Amino acid sequence: MIAGVGIDSLRIARMEQAMKREAFLNRVFTEKERDYLKKRALAAQSAAGMFCAKEAVLKALSLGITDARLTDIEILHRESGAPYVVLHGELAGKAAALHISITHTEDTASAVVILEKEEKAE
């Protein structure tokens, strides 16, 4: 059953500036995510999309940015390049499934997340 939808957008120029700070990268991205970004030619676009995905997950869960650690939301990629979400820590088990789509243009990144939860038996 669909239990939430989240969407977020970000100007890529903002992410380019934020990525200059190591503390920001460590606070927002897991080690696996940072390794992925190091291999990307368009790292700022990828990082902005992944950040939007994390924000969209929070919105789908009806949480704010201060309600969870962003590193508890991990955006990984299949061999095909398709993104998927892994929840850790306090967020683990909060969703039966999370469906994610990330896109970006030259200027803006966006992501949408659909949250599924198990239907409760009545």
Automatic annotation (TrEMBL):
Q: Report the subcellular localization.
A: Cytoplasm
A Pfam family name for this chain?
ACPS
Q: A Gene Ontology CC term for this entry?
A: cytoplasm
Question: Which residue numbers delimit the 4'-phosphopantetheinyl transferase domain?
Answer: 4-97
What's the name of its gene?
A: acpS
HAMAP family the record matches: AcpS
Instruction: Identify which top EC class this enzyme belongs to.
Output: transferase
Q: Which organism is it from?
A: Christensenella massiliensis
Entry cofactors: Mg(2+)
The signal peptide stretch is none
Q: Does the keyword Metal-binding apply?
A: yes
Q: Which family does it belong to?
A: Belongs to the P-Pant transferase superfamily. AcpS family.
Q: Which residues bind Mg(2+)?
A: 8, 55
A biological process from GO: fatty acid biosynthetic process
The record ties this protein, via InterPro entries, to: 4-PPantetheinyl_Trfase_dom, 4-PPantetheinyl_Trfase_dom_sf, ACPS, Ppantetheine-prot_Trfase_dom
Q: What is this protein called?
A: Holo-[acyl-carrier-protein] synthase
Superkingdom of the organism of origin: Bacteria
* Protein task: Transfers the 4'-phosphopantetheine moiety from coenzyme A to a Ser of acyl-carrier-protein.
